Amino acid sequence: MPQTAVPPGQAAPRRPVLQCVVLVVIALIAMTGLAVLIIWASVQPKKLHYSIEHGSVKGFNLTNDKLNSDMDFVLRANNPNRHVSLYYDRIEVTVWYEDQKLSVNNVHPFYQPKRNVTFVDLALVAKNATVYGATARDLRMERAAGEVNLNVKVRAKIRLKVGVFKIHRTLKVDCESVMVPFDFHRGFQRVVCRTDMDN
């Protein structure tokens, strides 16, 4: 097929140039991703560990199936990695009793260095939280027994820093059967949390 001549004074099409630019950008993205995977594999990061080291309940008042209470926990965050540090960008904490959410709060973002243990204060307030039916009955019974069985859940947007690269992940920490005494002098038993991480 004969080629169409370009009229005088009109620039030649730049499609081949644009195609080259697109191919170069795709190649750079692929190379960067491959470099991150190679570095990540060579570092062999260890799993992060979390536990509830302390918990307390104050000002507990359950009236007409409405709960008001202050709940405080200390979360131990252990990063055992020699080559990976973390940025906790957004952290949401919820406290559950059985299948009902009692309180939710956000924790200030923070940075955790390599091979570091950080203790994070989790302060939550249940304000007129509705507790229904059998759950309210169970909660009253546990109040009379002197301790309450709570579940603490942490959801965080984090960045794992490996060298010059940062990898975004969603962190899920579930701390189940956290037995919190109403009497501070009864002591608290440490609870190891289950940890998961999504892309």
UniProtKB/TrEMBL annotation:
Domain Late embryogenesis abundant protein LEA-2 subgroup: start-end pairs: 75-176
Pfam families: LEA_2
Entry's Gene Ontology BP terms: defense response to other organism
Location in or out of the cell: Membrane
Membrane topology note: Single-pass membrane protein
Keyword annotations from UniProtKB, A to Z: Membrane, Transmembrane, Transmembrane helix
Residue stretches spanning the membrane: 16-41
InterPro entries in the cross-refs: LEA_2, NDR1-like
Any one GO cellular component localisation term in the record: plasma membrane
Gene3D superfamilies given in the database record: 2.60.40.1820
Predominant cellular place of this UniProt entry's protein: membrane
Classification via PANTHER family: HARPIN-INDUCED PROTEIN 1 CONTAINING PROTEIN, EXPRESSED, LATE EMBRYOGENESIS ABUNDANT (LEA) HYDROXYPROLINE-RICH GLYCOPROTEIN FAMILY
Protein name, UniProt field: Late embryogenesis abundant protein LEA-2 subgroup domain-containing protein
Gene source species: Salvia splendens
